[in-house]
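Protocol step 4 of 5: obtain the predicted structure for the target chain.
Materials: sequence only (see below). No template structures provided, no constraints applied. The aim of this step is simply to have a reference model before the mutagenesis design in step 5. Sequence pasted as it appears in the construct record:
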Amino acid sequence: MKTLEVSRDADALSALLDQREAKHIQELAEAQAGVRAVVSREAAARFLGMSTKTLYRIIQKGEGPPFVKRSVGSRSQNERVYFPYPQLNAWKEAQTQYSSPDQRQKLREEAERARLRAELANLEAQAAALRRALRESGDLRIMAFEGLTSLTEPHPWVMGPSRVLGHALIVSDQDLEEGDLIWLSLEEALAEDWADLAAHGQLTEIYAAVLEEAAQLATNNHKRKRLALIAEQAKTDTRGPIRDL
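Step 4 output (structure tokens):
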């Protein structure tokens, strides 16, 4: 088991995420009312009915809606991506062709219900994964990585416009407040560009150590099975075929 000290537990992060969710809903309401010109990446993902991760990927490919970058706070690394609402809405409309206004509204309502169900299921799974990582360490201030599953489960990462700022349980309150949140596995997160290479290096060591332990466990398991087979064959050779009683 490899562990990492955290700055906040899963319940504290969940409370902060609830606050962010309320903020994003308010952002969209203000944008739709015409009193807000741009919305954050997380609010835009909600509006489009996709995860922040999916929106991040299509932006990387240059296939997403138009966006602008604005500095937040005192550090250049905290520059954030925002989406002008009129262009965001136009991009969303352009993605789907509808045969009638009634069908458009019906499909929108069905898509929103499906999105909310999926979002709830994802949030429950993500919270469970975080609590499991903290619980397995025996200390809620320590996050544990053990086995290949721990490397593939989604974790919350705080993002600048193009760089990972760190794990949401570890980064400073300022980074958590000013950055965007995206759920990635540890492997996916390590493949991104990072603002803090020391933090990237620490997690890379954990990732490599867990892989090494898993490989050693698989090798030992194979050896045990092979020795058991050899022992069974030896019994068969000296005593004749083994029959069920």
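Step 4 remarks: The mean pLDDT is 80. The longest helix spans residues 197-239.
Proceed to step 5.
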